[in-house]
Structures are given as structure tokens and as C-alpha cells.
Amino acid sequence: MKRIIFLLICSITILSVAVFASTDSEKTVYITFDDGPTHNTPVILDTLKKYNAKATFFVLNDRITENPDLLRRIIAEGHSIGLHGSSHDVNVIYSTPSKPLEEMNKANENLYNTVGFKTRLIRTPYGSYPYMNLEQYKILKAANYNLWDWTVDPRDGVGTPTIDTMLNRITNDLKGNENPIVLLHDRKSTANNLDSILNYFSSRNYTFDVLTEKTDPVNFMELYGPARNKSG
Ligand SMILES: [Zn+2]
């Protein structure tokens, strides 16, 4: 009898470990970098490679022009490309109903002329809502763009936060977050801290994946803005 109980306990333990492991292994994190490519991109790419991690780069029009080889390297190493517009100025890109679309189209032409393809993935500067209005959003959607914001924000672009501060912010944002989309920037301090950030996710069994045109976009317009609960 004791032996049966022992075996039963063993089976339950193995079963629960297996269930836990399978749930754990399904966690995916989407790391994203805005504002590149810049001279910091090589360090970012080397660190991603170290963790066999794929990420998504929302690139700026001028920086495509300035750093075409870095853009090509991002693509060659299996990362995903989205657009971040051209002006990077809230007073410009959100100034007229069609301006966000115009900026994305301009960057997309430049992308096409540089690497031979276009993308439907976009992220507007500083996040869509509250800067963007519903009309601008509808125009972008009608042009088939997928607008992405984020769900995890270590605020790496505000001042120069320490890695501990950023990891604390990540931990807080991850609570109850089944779809972590991490906002990072193509800048020196982030490049230098990226190893610790990737190690944080890797040690918690996250798989790194890219955003694609097939992924349903997550954005503030739909989550909190005027597009909420409305179709179109
Ligand atoms: Zn930006």
C-alpha cells in the first residue's frame, strides 16, 4: 500500500511538473527597438545573437538613409522591420488627418528602395494614444497598416535609468501580462544594458519572437482610445 501511495505521489509530481513545464515553455516576449538604425545597432544585434533572440525594429526614415548597411544586417539576422515615421515630432506627425500615413508611406518607399520590400508594421512616435485621433487611425487602418504600441515599458528612453530600475519596471508591467511587447530604444545605454534585459527573460523561460503582419496588433487606440469597442 505504501508503495502504491509512493508511486501515486511520484506520478502526480511528474504530471504537475510536466504541465507546469509546458505552460512555462509557451511564454513569448516581443522585444522591440524604436528610433534606429544607429551606430548602437551592432551592439544590439550582437547581444540578440548571443541569446538567439529575434526582435522587431521600428526604424526612422532618415536613419534608413543614413545606415542602409545596418538595416540590411538587421534583416539578414532574422529580425522584423516596422516603420516609425520620419519627423519623430508630435507637433508634426499628428498635425493633419493624413500626416501619419504620409510619414509612414515616405519611410516605406525608402525601405523599399533600400532593401526591396515594404512593411505593414508601424509604431508612431510616443505611442498612438492620446496623441493620435480616430480619423488618423482610421486612415492608417484603411491603408492596411498594423499599428503597434507596447505593454511593457522600462522607460529606457527617459533619462538614463539604471538596469535595476528598468528590470523593476519590467517586473511590474509583466504582472498579469500574457502578451509582453517590450518597448526599447536604439540608444547607447540600452545597448549596454541589453544583455541583462535579455537574460532576465531568458532565465524565466521566455521565447523571443518577432512581430509579423499576421500578428494581431496591440495598440493604445484600441485598448484605451476612441477606437475602443468600435469597429473600423
Ligand atoms: Zn521614437
Short description:
The protein is 47% helix and 11% strand.
**Which homologous superfamily in CATH is the superfamily?**
Glycoside hydrolase/deacetylase
* Beta strand count: 7
Cα-atom Rg, whole angstroms? 20 Å
State the name of the first-level CATH class. Answer: Alpha Beta
As residue ranges, the low-confidence spans are: 6-10, 12-22
Number of discrete helical segments: 10
CATH architecture: Alpha-Beta Barrel
The name CATH uses for the topology is TIM Barrel
Amino-to-carboxy terminus distance: 65 Å
Could you characterize what this model shows?
With 232 residues, the chain is of the alpha/beta class. The chain has a single domain (27-223), classed as Glycoside hydrolase/deacetylase (TIM Barrel). 47% of the residues lie in helices and 11% in strands. It has helices at residues 2-25, 41-50, 61-66, 68-76, 90-93, 99-115, 134-142, 163-174, 188-202, 220-223, and strands at residues 28-34, 56-59, 80-83, 121-122, 146-147, 181-185, 207-208. Strands 1, 2, 3, 6 and 7 form a five-stranded parallel β-sheet that branches. The chain has a two-stranded parallel sheet with strand order 4-5. Strand 1, helix 2 and strand 2 form a beta-alpha-beta unit. The N and C termini lie far apart (65 Å). Mean pLDDT is 91; it is low at 6-10 and 12-22. The site of zinc ion has 5 residues, from loops.
